[in-house]
Amino acid sequence: MELSIKTLESSDEKVWDDVVFSSTHGTIFHTIDWLKIEWRRMVQMQPDTEFLPLMFYKGSNLVAIYPIFTLKKGLIKVALSPPPRSKMLFLGPVIAGYDSLKQEKKESRYIKVQESLDHYIFQEKACKYAKINTSPGLYDSRPLSWAGYAVNPLYTYRIDLTKGIQAMWDNLDRHLRGNINKAMQAGVTVREGDKEDLLFVLDSVLKRYLEQNIKMENYKDYLLDIYTRFYPDNLKIFVAEHRDRPIGGVIDIHFKNIMYGWMGLTKTTLNGISVNDLIQWEVIKAAQKTAISLV
């Protein structure tokens, strides 16, 4: 199966997003709107960045999309998906109709897509290095391993929210339930937030990095762009308050019935009280009303 590659044009944007939304491993980071925002950030940070929204075809049939960013690291050109310091949890390929394919077809299609991608970035784009962080749902890492990539599996927790909130509470560790109750008894409350609260969470993250002598770029413009495009349907902000003063918060992403923990939950100033445990519990309660699972 020989594949042809073309770079996304504006007339293809709906086709691209249709693949993202119809696939179990298409994420919000694969959507055209998020990728455009990321590209603007990267160009401001490193002007020689090239964004390659690649579309793979067998004849006239679109079989995969694969967003790639190329840039220079010293004298070496690299291909990255996602790019560095992007706050994108996942990227890599989205293979159209992957879940409906038989196992042999899944493997052969993924292998061919990766072979075509590697030829493009290493031969045509003269890259010397590539790093790819694939999304959940695309579990088979063998096509990358067989292509010569060093594969490093990463894991996280995923909570099924379909059993109801009482079952979720009963399943929590006893110590964790105690922390949540103690925070509520101390008068800590959690509410959903807006743009002002988003900037509060960002500021708390920046301050925490400074306390640890870690340099972090200012993501204000980036987050405001994300907020403008994705709030409130896909961007969820939760802020903890004590005596009408914000003391902690988190920014989460809601996409295709999954809530993803994204940014925040820094160390709080209320001594002896586990504010972040209460925030996480309130996130679970909010997610349970609209989401199927929490990551």
Descriptive notes:
The protein is of the alpha+beta class and 295 residues long. It has nine helices and twelve strands. Strands 1, 2, 3, 4, 5 and 6 form a six-stranded mixed sheet that branches. The protein has a six-stranded mixed sheet with strand order 7-12-11-10-9-8, sandwiched between helices. It is globular. The two termini are 36 Å apart. The model has no long low-confidence stretch (mean pLDDT 95).
In short:
The chain has helices spanning about 15-20, 30-45, 105-125, 140-145, 165-170, 175-185, 195-210, 220-230, 275-290, and strands at about 5, 50-60, 60-75, 75-80, 95, 130, 160, 190, 235-240, 245-255, 260-265, 295. By secondary structure, it is of the alpha+beta class.
